[in-house]
């Protein structure tokens, strides 16, 4: 079933969509380069296609290909470059940001992208209070003094704001069409916005593609946007097909039923035929870690900083990488991922069993102790958490620590860690945008942060690290040339906390049919479809 992408100009939209999907042309004289659908196999996790409510990895692919952002990331995955904004500037204290919009940018119905649309989209994102709404936390005002000028003011200095805007969740919607179909950006949008169902079958962005169809448990279809001219769109039709597991994705790739498979693990990838399939392993910002909770009610001994140090020294980091990813992963020093601001030259964690035993002996625990280790029973980034925690259990046993591992459903884990805390746990994390502040705000031992709470900060005040609070305040008000140094200092503090112990940053496996070109991992967008072509 084909689904229209816009109701702004029904006749024109219907004709354009028909032309795109049937392979006749783009409506402006350009010939279609390749109208055979590009098939991408991946497991779906879609909660919504509404730009203010969508919150998932598959959503990132959808949003970034359909809705443009003011800024985006270049191919180096760290440098900001223009998208809808052709230029931008920030004031000295990082509280006001001014953007000049591309004068030629058009939505998929042919109408111009204007400052009112940016204002509407940001305010709606904030006020709908969906999963990504926190991106607009601290937003004081958005002004649209001219059709192509946007001025955003924040309540406090936020040098990370430009990076936040490169996230696909900050995409710009056609406000006129959104308003006509039940959307609102009013302060009570969480109660009065009624557009989510409409967004399930319609798109109103300015990106290279439009929504061409969505069956929640089966497929997500894209058609080329007839008014998009920023890049050359080589493949005009694409479909994400819901394929649950790595083996099934590999089978589709091998048979030719899929052009790209997005979630093949390293072991399965080794079985793919090299004559028909290309496999690349590339570093990622995703990581898996164990975490300690000094304030957990179930602790059998006090998890002092010294005991946490002993636990960290007990872990066989190189062995864990081999055991969990078959060597297709990288060590990570701090809760800020490799390659992000502040991580250059950080000391990598190393196993030292003698030192760990000496610390435990000095603490009167030479006979060891038991620790509850509850974790979500998941497979994330190709890492089987049960196997990973079994390896952690074996490592700790070498210094006399008996980890009582217990896999549970994710919902059970969340409830437990929010209530009583979990002494030792295994978790995973992926970035929401390229920038280090999100990791300090999430993992830092800063009063009120998610992991300060999970570490039992309300019950054990010793976990608070005042230096992190001070340094975060400084970096959010700092110019670009000072951020690296400040984030490096914060990363060293987070390492010394010994609350979050990164185990491995699994490589991303890119697997695609020979003849498919331009496939890459994007830190902001995951899979830029407009860059892909076929021989």
What are its keywords?
D-Maltodextrin-Binding Protein, domain 2; 18 helices; disordered N terminus; globular; alpha+beta; Dipeptide-binding Protein, domain 3; 2 domains; seven-stranded mixed β-sheet; single chain; 535 residues
Describe the protein's architecture and organization.
The protein has 535 residues and is of the alpha+beta class. The chain folds into 2 domains: 10-246 and 512-534, D-Maltodextrin-Binding Protein, domain 2; 287-506, Dipeptide-binding Protein, domain 3 (Roll), CATH 3.10.105.10. 30% of the residues lie in helices and 21% in strands. It is built from 18 helices and 23 strands. The strands form 7 sheets. Strands 8-9-10-1-11-21-12 form a 7-stranded mixed sheet, with helices on both faces. A hairpin with a 6-residue loop joins strand 2 and strand 3. Helix 10 (305-314) runs antiparallel to helix 12 and helix 17 (466-476) runs antiparallel to helix 18 (480-497). 50% of the residues are buried.
């Amino acid at each position: 079933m084909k689904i229209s992408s816009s109701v702004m100009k029904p006749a024109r939209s219907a004709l354009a969509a028909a032309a795109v999907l049937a392979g006749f042309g783009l409506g402006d004289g350009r010939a279609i380069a390749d109208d055979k659908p590009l098939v991408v196999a991946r497991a779906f996790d879609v909660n919504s296609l509404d730009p203010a409510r969508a919150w998932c990895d598959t959503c990132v692919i959808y949003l970034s290909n359909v809705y443009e952002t003011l800024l985006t990331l270049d191919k180096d995955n760290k440098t900001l470059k223009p998208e809808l904004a052709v230029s931008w500037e920030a004031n000295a204290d990082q509280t006001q940001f001014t953007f000049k919009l591309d004068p030629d940018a058009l939505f998929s119905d042919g109408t111009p992208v204007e400052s009112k649309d940016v204002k509407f989209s940001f305010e709606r994102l904030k006020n709908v209070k969906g999963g990504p709404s926190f991106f607009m936390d601290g937003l004081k005002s958005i002004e649209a003094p001219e059709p192509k000028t946007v001025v955003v003011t924040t309540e406090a200095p936020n040098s990370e704001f430009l990076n936040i805007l490169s996230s696909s969740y900050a995409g710009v919607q056609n406000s006129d069409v959104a308003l006509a179909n039940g959307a609102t950006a009013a302060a009570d949008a969480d109660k009065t916005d009624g557009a989510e169902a409409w967004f399930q079958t319609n798109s109103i962005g300015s990106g290279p593609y439009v929504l061409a169809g969505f069956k929640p448990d089966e497929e997500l279809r894209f058609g080329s946007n007839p008014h998009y001219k920023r890049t050359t769109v080589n493949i005009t039709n694409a479909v994400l097909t819901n394929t649950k597991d790595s083996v099934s994705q590999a089978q589709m790739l091998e048979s030719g039923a899929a052009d790209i498979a997005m979630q093949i693990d390293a072991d399965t990838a080794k079985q793919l035929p090299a004559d028909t399939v290309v496999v690349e392993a590339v570093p990622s910002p995703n990581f898996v870690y164990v975490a300690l909770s000094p304030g957990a009610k179930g602790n059998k001994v006090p998890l002092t900083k010294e005991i946490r140090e002993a636990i960290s020294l007990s872990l066989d980091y190189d062995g864990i990488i081999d055991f969990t990813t078959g060597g297709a992963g990288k060590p990570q020093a701090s809760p800020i991922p490799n390659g992000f601001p502040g991580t250059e030259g950080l000391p990598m964690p190393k196993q030292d069993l003698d030192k760990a035993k000496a610390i435990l002996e000095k603490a009167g625990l030479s006979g060891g102790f038991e620790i509850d280790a509850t974790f979500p029973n998941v497979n994330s980034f190709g890492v089987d958490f049960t196997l990973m925690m079994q390896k952690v259990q074996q490592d700790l046993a070498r210094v006399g620590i008996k980890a009582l591992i217990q896999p549970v459903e994710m919902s059970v884990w969340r409830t437990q860690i929010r209530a009583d805390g979990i002494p030792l746990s295994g978790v995973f994390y992926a970035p929401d945008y390229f920038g280090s502040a999100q990791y300090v705000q999430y993992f830092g031992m800063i009063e009120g942060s998610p992991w300060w709470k999970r570490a039992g900060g309300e019950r054990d005040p010793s976990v608070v690290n005042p230096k992190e609070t001070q340094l975060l305040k400084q970096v959010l008000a700092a110019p670009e040339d000072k951020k690296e140094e400040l984030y490096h200092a914060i990363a060293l503090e987070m390492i010394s906390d010994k609350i979050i112990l990164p185990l491995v940053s699994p490589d991303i496996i890119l697997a695609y049919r020979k003849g498919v070109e331009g496939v890459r991992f994007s830190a902001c967008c995951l899979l830029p479809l407009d860059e892909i072509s076929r021989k």
